[in-house]
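It is worth pausing here to work through a concrete case rather than discussing structure prediction in the abstract. The textbook approach is simple: state the sequence, then state the predicted structure, then interpret. We follow exactly that order.
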Amino acid sequence: MELTHALLLGIVQGITEWLPVSSSGHLALIHKMLGIAASPAFDVTLHAGTLLAVLAAFRKEYTEMLKAALRLDWKSPPGKTLLWIILATIPGATAGYLFRDFFESLFNSTQAIGTGLLITAALLYAASKTRGTKDIGTKEAIIIGLAQVLSIAPGISRSGSTLSAGMLSGADRNKAARFSLLLSAPIVLGASVFELTKASLLELQPIPTITGIAITFIAGYISIEVLLKLVKESKLQYFAYYCALLGIICITYLANP
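Step two, the predicted structure:
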């Protein structure tokens, strides 16, 4: 892994993991178009950087949920949120485990990536027209969890699908965005653990590895703040336009079987 490649992949991963434009789709396109081959071990470092970013951005919320869990307090707001996160994680974790080979095969097709981006665009555009006011509850958590299954496929943004599902279910956009981001920790951690089963950490080079983690963390932390700001300002539709354009380019100009 060259240092310049580590910088590029770290920036792309950090930004696109949290902005609703599909990190998996962007990374797959970069690998294919620029011929950059990242090892499973390096993928783990990128996941580590994004995980650290969301833990840092929501350190207060995660700390309160941990305290509630240790007290076995499931009735307080942090305790309820933790239960909803667990509930919403189950569908994606199950589907990822059972059908991982199928979903991984889709990453070789720019048509599949483009289709996923168009689906993300449609979800974001529909969600941008909503004006929900509800809190996140059990029903909303289930809907968001089911939407997270879609994001296993390349091109379908995890943050985009879960945020859109929350908003389309009637939840307040700001609360849906925060829950979507909080929900990311277990799935990112799970992806990291899965990558570790395929990786040899001994193949990592110290400087590119440290660079990848650092740049992913910095870009990820900033992009989380940007996303929350844009959601608050009701500007989700711009992400929809971007995903639609990139999806059309993938299908029309970059298509391969």
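Step three, interpretation. The mean pLDDT is 90. The CA atoms of residues 88 and 145 lie 4 Å apart.
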